[in-house]
Specification:
single chain, 45% helix, globular, two-stranded antiparallel ribbon, membrane, 9 strands, Spore Coat Polysaccharide Biosynthesis Protein SpsA, Chain A
Length: 436
């Protein structure tokens, strides 16, 4: 082969390689679009998820075997060992056995809830429809008054209607009791303990009053007042709670809320403990603060207050009644103020008057009732992404079995916060106001 031919062949080889590379580049450019890259990333993520799930299942086999033998005790040990996933060094995260145990406990709570709804709840509904007039009776009986030992760090006073048995039952089965298995773990301690009591008045039905006394005797978490349970007597209900707490319980802090409100109690006691460590000597009165609220003078309005009771056009700032927390050390002064300040039928404004009388200014907390004044018919709580229920300390508009479901979901989102990391960044989630 001549030198000329060899030289042409030497030039031709790189040329062919260059053409091949160009053609390959064109093909690669076709498949390197954002669409194909996203598809590849999704496939890779799915394969990783399958691998992590398989690995977690291997690690949790022994625990899955033992959970049927003693779900409650194992659950307590599991939750006590769970840490926020940001602190978990292993890539697998919490074992599947933890979620399985939590699910078992949820099923047990739901079954107990359904059993109650098919038994005593039917009697409450029936007696509510067949009220019978009778002479007023004194219902207070020390035999079934709540017990407050050991003394809790936080006392939760829940305003409840006598007929709302299932609301009280759902609270007992979820956030209301610190001894529920789902509320046990490394975050619980005497410094973060809590107790829930329900404040109710009497009714015009002797059968319903009798059911209420039986419930109080069984659960020992109900304080019954000697007044009719009506809206305009809500201030008397709050005063009943202050009097009972002053005589029978000595907590550090008190939360007043309603039976249609959900309390993120684990986050609340943590916030209160941090406040107590840094500002324990400073009296606390915190909630969603209402300002420049006008006094209603229309006698047909449920919020009507006479000039004789309050001679001003606007109320002083006060915390909304769905949920406010205050220092229990203020009880003696608040009870003294109740003897000097007229009792008005607007419960939260009345309590605000007591606080103003003793010189305590309210502290706004945006995590207490954050949505109640901004959600309308088009943006109700039910329309919100579930991850919006994780951070608030008190939520209004949650009743019955939704208390149990919400508490379960909040626990998951609290201990596995990355669950909500995707939702928080989505445009549909940002369309909702986080607070008002």
């Amino acid at each position: 082969m001549s030198a000329r031919i060899q030289f042409i062949l030497l030039l031709d080889a790189p040329l062919k390689i260059a053409v091949s590379l160009t053609q390959m580049g064109r093909k690669m450019n076709k498949y390197c679009t954002i669409r194909y890259l996203l598809l590849l990333a999704s496939l890779t993520g799915f394969m990783n998820l399958v691998y992590l799930t398989f690995l977690a299942d291997l690690r949790g086999t022994l625990e899955l075997y033992t959970m049927q033998r003693s779900s409650s005790s194992v659950l307590r040990r599991q939750i006590a060992s769970i840490q926020v996933d940001a602190d978990i060094k292993a890539a697998t995260g919490p074992s599947l056995s933890y979620l399985e145990l939590l699910n078992l406990d949820l099923k047990d709570l739901v079954q107990r809830y359904l059993a109650s709804s098919q038994t005593i709840a039917k009697q409450y509904e029936l007696n509510n429809l067949q009220e019978e007039p009778q002479e007023e009776q004194v219902l207070v009986n020390h035999f079934y008054l709540p017990r407050c030992l050991p003394v809790p760090f936080l006392l939760i006073m829940v305003h409840s209607n006598p007929v709302n048995f299932m609301d009280r039952e759902s609270i007992r089965l979820s956030w209301g009791r610190g001894d529920n298995p789902v509320n046990q773990g490394s975050w619980t301690s005497p410094e973060r303990s809590w107790k829930t009591v329900f404040l109710v008045g009497k009714t015009n039905s002797s059968k319903l009053n009798n059911l209420l006394r039986q419930e109080a005797q069984v659960y020992k978490d109900i304080v019954i007042g000697d007044f009719l349970d009506t809206y305009r007597n809500l201030s008397l209900k709050t005063l009943l709670g202050l009097q009972w707490t002053s005589h029978h319980c000595k907590p550090k802090y008190i939360l007043k809320t309603d039976d249609d409100c959900y309390v993120n109690v684990l986050s609340l006691v943590q916030w209160l403990q941090e406040y107590h460590v840094t500002n324990g000597s400073r009296p606390l009165y915190a909630g969603n603060i209402q300002r420049d609220m006008e006094v209603v003078r229309d006698k047909t309005n449920r919020y009507y207050v006479s000039v004789m009771d309050i001679n001003r056009h606007k109320y002083p700032p006060y915390a909304s009644g769905g949920g406010y927390v205050f220092s229990a050390s203020l009880l003696p002064r608040l009870l003294a103020a109740s003897q000097e300040v007229p009792i008005i039928p607007v419960e939260d404004a009345c309590f605000g008057l007591y606080m103003q009388h003793i010189g305590i200014k309210p502290l706004h907390n945006s995590k207490i009732l954050p949505y109640v004044f901004c959600d309308g018919a088009k943006t109700s709580l039910n329309e919100r992404p579930i991850c919006h229920l994780r951070d608030p300390l008190v939520l209004h508009g949650i009743r019955d079995i939704l208390q149990i479901q919400t508490h379960y979901n909040v626990l998951l989102m609290t201990f596995l916060p990355t669950i909500c990391s995707y939702v928080d960044n989505q445009s549909f989630s940002k369309n909702f106001q986080q607070s008002c």
